[in-house]
Structure formats: C-alpha cells, structure tokens
Amino acid sequence: MSKVVVFDHPLIQHKLSIMRDKNTGCKEFRELLDEISMLMVYEVTRDLQTKEIEVETPICVTKTKALAGKPIGIIPILRAGLGMVDGILNLIPNAKVGHIGLYRDPATLNPVEYYCKLPEDAEHRELIVLDPMLATGGSASAAIGFIKARGCNNIRLVNLIAAPEGIARIQKDHPDVDVYVAALDDHLNDHGYIVPGLGDAGDRLFGTK
After folding, report:
1. Known catalytic residues?
2. Cβ atoms 14, 39 nearer than 8 A
C-alpha cells in the first residue's frame, strides 16, 4: 500500500487557511498556491539520493553532497495543476515539465486523455504529478495510468487538499504511488466537491468564476 503524507508545517497550514477563505482573490490565491507548492516539494524530495563530491571553497578543498539519483520531472494535470509548477521550479530549476490533460466522457463518465506531452526521457525520471484537489481520485488515477502506459514507474502524487475517497482510489489503483497532501479533509458532498475544501481550484486560480 502506498503511503500518504500529510504536511502539518505551520507555514503550510497558515497559507492554506487563507486559500480556503472564499474572500481571497485570484491573485493572492495564485501566489499562495505557488508558495505552498514550494514548501511541499521541499519535503517531497527529502529522500532524493545524494553522492559525495569534492569542491574547493575560498578556504580549502572539502567533501560535500550533490544530487545523484534520477532527475526530476514535473507533470501537472491541466488546468489547475499548472498553478503548482512555478513554486517547484523555484527549488528544482533543472526539472523538466510535462503536461497531461483529461476530460470526462459525458456518456461513460470515464476520464479521456486529450493531451499528454512528457519529457522524452520521462521513464528515467522521478515524476511528480501535480493537482491541487484530489476529490474522487478518478482523474488523478487515470492520469497516472496514462503516464505508466508510457513506461514510467517512478511516480509521486502531490495535492493541496485530498478527500478520503480520493486517497482510497489512488491506493486501490496505484499502490506503488505515494501521495503527499497539505490537508486531508472530511468527505465529498453530493456534487463531488471536497468538504470543507476551497471550492474549484482552477476557477479560483484563473479567475474564471
């Protein structure tokens, strides 16, 4: 079973509280999502491999640490996942960015891929899939499935807020994918929104509602 990590860092929780407020405008919402994403990825990448290297400081030659494992790839799920990219690139500027877009078929209600562009060496990277809200988990699970179908297996899912239903779906469909969230909320309402949540992250991010 994949692990679920809920970040309780005071800065993350404080910023998330402001994002939840219905009176927070899209400019501040966007800035806060950027900041929280950066704080979260700091912890998400805590177990990255390092190697010992030798550098010469202005004082002497010394041994220190440098990244040595697989390079990073960032895969936002369109459209709301885009709001998490810049914060992560601030910390990992050499990461490559792919994109995956899904829509729900009105007849079958199943997620359908309409766009997927991954780094050409994605199968050799540690991939971080981004989506602010993990509600039913259907879209995130489908996105991960589409990415796996392209030969990628080193995948982590990062969400701002998750519902128990979404966590259960990911653990059922992708037990090898660890999930990192800033908050695990109570449940989904009859319209599929996370309660208490923060509404539609995409609309609030881009000012489309």
Report:
1. 104, 108, 200, 203
2. no
Residue 109, both tokens: 């209600």
What is the rounded distance in angstroms from the CA atom of residue 85 to the CA atom of residue 25? Answer: 20
Q: Where are the alpha helices (DSSP H) in 45-132?
A: 85-91
Cβ neighbour number for residue 21 with a 10 Å cutoff: 11
CA distance 70 to 73: 9
Q: In the chain, where do the E strands start and end?
A: 4-6, 50-56, 61-67, 72-78, 96-97, 99-104, 111-117, 126-130, 133-134, 155-162, 178-184, 187-188, 194-195
pLDDT digits (tens, 9 = 90+) for 79-94: 999 999 999 999 999 9
The answer, yes or no, to whether the previous bond of 150 is cis (omega within 30 of 0) is no
31 closest CA partner among 7, 14, 15, 8 = 15
- The predicted model scores a pTM of 0.93
pLDDT in tens, 105-137: 877 768 889 999 999 999 999 999 999 999 999
Position 192 confidence tier, pLDDT thresholds 50, 70, 90: confident
Contacts of 94 (CB under 8 A, 6+ apart): 71, 72
State the Cα–Cα distance between residues 152 and 62, nearest whole angstrom. Answer: 37
Nearest C-alpha neighbor of 7 from the set 184, 186, 146:
184
Token digits for 155?
């995948």
